[in-house]
Amino acid sequence: MTNSAPDRALSGGFSDMPVEAAQGFRSVLDALSRPGSIVRLNGATPPAPMSPAAGAVALVLLDNTTPLYLAPGHDTPALCAWIAFHTGAPLVSAETAMFALGTWPALQPVSRFAIGTADYPDRAATLIVETDRLDSSGGRLHGPGIETSARLSLPEIAAFRANHARFPLGFDTLFTCGDRLAGLPRSTQVESD
Amino acid sequence: MYVAVKGGERAIDNAHAFLAEARRGDPTVPELTVPQIREQMALAVARVMAEGSLYDADLAALAIKQARGDLIEAIFLIRAYRTTLPRFGSSRPVDTGTMAVVRRVSATFKDVPGGQVLGPTFDYTHRLLDFALAAEGAPPKAPKAETLGPMPRVGEHLDREGLIEPEPAPDPACAPPPPDLTRTPLELPAERALRLQALARGDEGFLLSLAYSSQRGYGRTHPFVGELRIGEVMVEVEIPELGLTIALGSITVTECETVNQFTGSKTQPAQFTRGYGLVMGHSERKAIAMSLVDRALRWQELGEESTGAPVQDAEFVLMHADNIQATGFLEHIKLPHYVDFQSELELVRRLRAAAHDHESKQVPEGQEAAE
Amino acid sequence: MNDYNFAYLDEGTKRMIRRAILKAVAVPGYQVPFASREMPMPYGWGTGGVQVTAACLRPDDRLKVIDQGADDTTNAVSIRKFFQRTARVATTERTGDATIIQTRHRIPEAPLSEGQILVYQVPIPEPLRFLEPRETETRRMHALQEYGLMHLKLYEDIARHGEIATSYAYPVQVSGRYVMDPSPIPKFDNPKLSNCPALQLFGAGREQRIYAVPPYTQVISLDFEDHPFVATKAPHACDLCGDDGSYLDEVITDDAGRRMFICSDTDHCNSRRAAGHVGALTGDAA
Question: Scanning every residue of chain B, which has its alpha carbon at the shortest distance from the alpha carbon of C45?
Fold first, then answer.
């Protein structure tokens, strides 16, 4: 038996908000401050197609002050209801979003997202990119948080190179796959080798 | 062996116990109650509510008692408490035109519709110590006036003739909610709504001195008190889901609007301009000072010259108006700084040694030999 | 008053601080504005560090708090007690055992490791503030990476004193971009900022700013080719543990002005003494 839609919207959150949010945040912080490292993020069971890791990111970071863009495929009624109930984040267009959620193809063109201003580079979007594959192979990463170099399975190289080229402006990216997450801040240099 | 100021835990506990004892004072003297402070120290309570940004007279009175009468410390207690409170929504703007007035005076007209209402003012008291107050006793009964109706604001009379700049018309349907100083970090340059928020919770003494400096010529704006009014206004919230407006209760506020000379600019004819002050509680000095500072800060918008006066410098005023920020940072210099001091000590010793070397090298050889 | 939320702050406030921390990590050295809350301790006494720590703490953390390098200075004791009460976390004085270290004015002597977070309390986060008091101006200078004023100041020092006369809060450049105030640590500690395996977070409560240095990030102390940066300390060894490489406190011991030098990092000194190291005065103390 499946639950009715309203029931699904109400379930799947953290059972102990302060503690699970703290644990979830530290995992996200770890991932973003060590680009290329992959962390586990449990505790959230959002409706498909949202991954548990992306669900946990939403519970940790989103609320009614954080406009969210749901890319096609993630803008299902069930997911909208879940996000509304658990975070209260207003759903907005890509251009005005502080956070965006979707697969890499669905988020295109990423040039729409806020990259901050010269005075306030922090006013840039964070993309939560759902992927089928997340491992330490592929694009080579250098920069803050990386001792020598690291590798991460990126959906493409060029977009992230272009994003870094605008540093200190640019969006920041969290890749999610099942209950795993990796971070790629705009400060990371990306090479295809 | 010498041990630096360490072993803190017990010292801190002992200091707190000593503080509690000192706060109580001589135990043979009856202890103050919170209602006594609330009723008899009402203006101190009002200041703590205004600068603490929390309208609760009992909590303010408690804070004053706990702070041993140190009002900035009491304001700090209220702020730290306030910040933990959940936020359910924002009220509608209060309408001071419907105020139940206890005091209302205008300096710009001999009489105004509704009359000059002195209310409970110190203004014409002779400042002679009243030794009768040292003894207990009931004050003489004050005569009761008939209840006053709503009074139109004085500015509206000038408005009708076009002699004063119009107030921007509020449009509740499409106006964005004003920014909230306590929820978003101050960004400069700050719009007027944000400036007024900062001034409303700013330190009374700081605003007083700034306003005074403008009167003495540092950014002068020629103000008249168009109107000063004190009384109760209703606080209401809208519940859009229910299509209802609910009255939460009434609060006392002090409002001051100044009428300022303005000789006109290239684009605008001569017209009076406004400075505005609104403070929670009965807080006349603060409201007047606020309206002078507000007006002075509007120089750019009105196309006036900056004379470089402190009161015209929005960043200077806004960054230094908050007494909780100011007192914390000021007093933190009594915390240990010996690590930084040590690095300065080394630097000064090294620079002195270098200077000494330099001097002795310049001494002629003969003299050096004679020493 | 009832029970506090875990780590005192409400969840909405923690989310806001956490978002600011992530942006700070993404733009190393840039000061992210955040809506600092009033804390139950005065501004200037570590409210920024306390808010950052509160937003980072997990129940399984081991927290160390130091002020001037010492665990037992009064303000360190007070902040540690605050988190024991509101977050019920374990505390430690051992640098190596701590997962989060909140500090005022020092970086511990023991090298930090991956997985640790060092939280600095910052009074004035803007390195250009003493050269240009206006926020509107300094923000523009950072935006344009226009740091000539800072170099000019340092150069004037050299012209006047023969060396750069800044001994603490010595300005650094992070990852080749933002000039950053490392908080008032002695410049002796500056080299430890660079390429550190731990994450370094900086919180300024009154000034409403959070900034970060991610692990393994290059942090350069500003200098000139002909006047390279030198980390300095008192030319002595610790009188208790004999270490001649640690930062020292100078303590006046009597009215005749006699003095001794002891490690400012109390955990470092205690660990060395426990391991049998002795200093010039250790014998007398018995």
Answer: B332
Residues of C forming the active site: 29, 238, 241, 263, 269
The string of pLDDT tens digits covering residues B251-305 is: 999 999 999 987 776 777 788 999 999 999 999 999 999 999 999 999 998 888 8
Q: Is residue A75 part of a domain?
A: yes
Backbone angles phi, psi at A174, to 5 degrees: -115, 125
- With a pLDDT cut of 70, the percent of chain C lying above it is 98
State how far residue B182 is from chain C, nearest Cα, in angstroms. Answer: 7
Cβ distance C73 to B315 less than 8 Å, yes or no, reads no
H helices present in chain A, as ranges: 5-10, 17-33, 52-61, 77-86, 104-107, 158-165
The total of other beta-carbon atoms located within 10 Å of residue C113's CB is 12
Domain around A151: 16-191
**Where residue C285 falls among pLDDT bands split at 50, 70, 90?**
very low
Is this prediction's ipTM beyond 0.90?
yes
Q: At what angle do helices A17-33 and A52-61 cross, to 10 degrees?
A: 110
**Helix-strand-coil percent breakdown of chain C, rounded to 5?**
30, 20, 50
Measured between its terminal Cα atoms, the distance across chain A in Å is: 49
In the β-sheet with C90-91, what is the strand arrangement from edge to edge?
C32-33, C209-213, C199-204, C117-121, C100-104, C62-67, C90-91
Alpha helix (H) residue ranges in C112-186: 135-143, 148-161
**Count of domains for chain A:** 1
Q: Which of A19, A63, A66 is nearest residue C6 as measured by Cβ atoms?
A: A19
> Taking CB atoms and an 8 Å limit, are A26 and C56 in contact across chains?
yes
Query: Who among B5, B324, B336 is closest to C38 (CB)?
Result: B324
Tell me the CATH number at A181: 3.40.50.11310
In this prediction the pTM is 0.92
- How close A23 comes to chain C (CA, Å)? 6
